[in-house]
Automatic annotation (TrEMBL):
A single GO BP: chromosome segregation
Similarity-based family: Belongs to the ParB family.
NCBIfam families in UniProt: parB_part, partition_RepB
Stretches assigned to the ParB-like N-terminal domain: 72-164
Name this polypeptide is given: Plasmid partitioning protein RepB
InterPro entries according to UniProt: Chromosome_partition/occlusion (IPR050336), ParB/RepB/Spo0J (IPR004437), ParB/Sulfiredoxin_sf (IPR036086), ParB_N (IPR003115), Plasmid_partition_RepB (IPR017819), Plasmid_RepB (IPR011111), RepB_N (IPR037972)
Taxonomic classification: Bacteria, Pseudomonadati, Pseudomonadota, Alphaproteobacteria, Hyphomicrobiales
Length: 358
């Protein structure tokens, strides 16, 4: 959908009903034609009626426009989160810290959207803008917002669409939002909320339901981790949301570490995945029986990748291993050459690193 069409739809939603299109059509509709010659009493009354109707239209339009875009300052203590959470709050969130610093220095540039709270008088409930509200609350300042009357469904759709357009939610936060909505709302509402088709909505819900919410909340939003890595993580869980004892022990051991809480959520994800992989290979199985949770955790480093020569040999280096890849189709002679000389290189290395005789 184009930005121009998005703006049109947004304006239509502000004005209600058919939106601007209906108002333009009404304004351009053919007016009753008057007979030529002297204007009689009936014609004068008709003109007056038309004038009064136009005045009412202008007044109504002005009122709706004013109420739709009016930005007010709200006490953050009287503002409450949406009734369906869509964000994970973690101890270390550099993006939130940057947002709070920006608001402190230059003010809140984008207002939040709230509705009058459905059950509490003189209170408000957020449709979107939770991070801006939290930042203003932490800073002890008023939060700028637009107040609109919204039904539960309208609030959820506004909440989901805003986060989707701004790409504010991480992949796993979107999956959890879908799972929570699915408990009370039909798939059609969820599709509108996240602007995805039914097949993707089903996949998001299934992925989030595979892993316990407490497990996901401990890791956090992991904004740099996408669908493939989360699917790999979900592969360690059975259909009932449980792990086998060996993998569960590895996770419990890691979660018990104070050092784990010092990692940001992306680092937590990588640390958990690495622990699961090592438990699978048996690296930690015996050690976990007698070892306390680590006091420090080295964040998993991303792989170092590159090429040798004119993109002839690819390499990938991680903390655990280094691999080399030669495309046999493109470089058959080079592959044979390296195979012939690898032994010589290994012997040369061993000679250079040989322990001196005593």
């Amino acid at each position: 959908m184009s930005k121009a069409k998005d703006r049109k739809n947004a304006l239509d939603s502000l004005f209600g009903g058919g939106g601007m299109a209906d108002m333009v059509a009404a304004g351009s509709a053919q007016r009753p034609r008057l007979a030529s010659g002297a204007i009689g009493a009936a014609e004068i009354n008709l003109i007056r009626d038309e004038r009064d109707r136009l005045k009412e239209e202008v007044s109504d339009l002005s009122g709706r426009l004013s109420s739709a875009v009016a930005v007010v300052e709200l006490d953050p203590e009287k503002v409450h989160p949406s009734f369906v959470p869509d964000r994970m709050v973690v101890e270390h969130d550099p993006a939130f810290d940057a947002l709070k610093e920006s608001i402190e220095q230059t003010g809140q540039q984008v207002p939040i959207l709230v509705r009058p709270h459905p059950t509490e008088e003189n209170q408000y409930q957020i449709a979107f803008g939770h991070r801006r509200w939290r930042a203003c609350r932490d800073l002890g300042i008023k939060v700028r917002g637009v107040v609109r009357a919204l039904s539960d469904e309208e609030l959820l759709i506004a909440q989901g669409q805003e986060n989707h357009e701004r790409k504010d939610l991480s992949f796993i936060e979107t999956c959890l939002f879908v799972l929570r909505l699915s408990a009370d709302y039909p798939q059609s509402v969820i599709c509108k909320a996240i602007n995805k088709d039914k097949s993707l909505v089903s996949k998001y819900r299934k992925l989030a339901s595979t892993m316990p919410e407490s497990f996901l909340m401990t890791i956090g939003p992991a904004p740099k981790i996408g669908r493939p890595r989360w699917e790999e993580m979900a592969g360690y869980f059975s259909e009932d949301g449980k792990m086998d004892p060996v993998h569960q022990k590895a996770v419990d051991w890691l979660f018990a570490s104070e050092a784990f809480l010092d990692l940001d959520s992306d680092e937590r994800f990588l640390a958990v995945l690495e622990a699961l992989q090592e438990a699978e290979s048996g690296v930690h199985t015996e050690a976990l029986e007698q070892t306390e949770a680590p006091k420090t955790i080295k964040p998993a480093a991303s792989a170092n990748k590159g090429w040798f020569g004119d993109r002839r040999v690819a390499f990938k280096q991680t903390a655990k291993a280094t691999s080399f890849t030669v495309d046999h189709t493109a470089n058959p002679e080079l592959a044979d050459y390296l195979m012939q000389h690898i032994d010589e290189l290994v012997r040369q290395f061993e000679e250079e690193h040989k322990e001196p005789e005593q």
